[in-house]
């Protein structure tokens, strides 16, 4: 499988890959900015339809309403970042 479009020079140099697992392994070796760019390009390639098979949209709307009702329950960007970093280290 070949990537048809990617502005990352490293992605253009990847060997032909036949499985999603191989693609993932190569993508995870990219730098954070390169992975973010690739993720953005992949997301833009999806159709604009929303499906909510796991009720994720309903949950997001519920949490948004909770935050509107009580902003004190929210996290600062730094607290969120610390939580993500701590979770990655586990």
**Major sheet: size, sense and barrel closure?**
none
What's the shape? extended
The helicity comes to 55-70%
Beta content: under 5%
What count of domains describes the coordinates?
2
Q: Average pLDDT, to the nearest integer?
A: 80
Low-confidence stretches: 1-5
Please report the number of helical segments: 5
Order of helices and strands: HHHHH
Radius of gyration: 18 Å
Q: Give the termini separation.
A: 33 Å
Total DSSP E strands: 0
Which class of secondary structure composition applies to the elements?
A: mainly alpha
Give a verbal description of the structure.
This protein is mostly helical. Helices cover 59% and strands 0% of the residues. The N terminus is likely disordered.
List the helices and strands and how they pair.
Blueprint: H1 9-12, H2 20-27, H3 32-45, H4 56-69, H5 77-89
């Amino acid at each position: 499988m070949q990537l048809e479009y990617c502005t990352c020079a490293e992605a253009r140099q990847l060997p032909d890959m036949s499985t999603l697992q191989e693609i993932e392994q190569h993508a995870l070796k990219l730098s954070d900015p390169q992975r973010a760019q690739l993720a953005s390009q992949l997301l833009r390639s999806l159709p604009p339809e929303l499906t909510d098979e796991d009720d994720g949209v309903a949950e997001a709307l519920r949490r948004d309403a909770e935050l509107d009702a009580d902003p004190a329950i929210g996290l600062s960007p730094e607290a969120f970042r610390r939580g993500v970093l701590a979770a990655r280290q586990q």
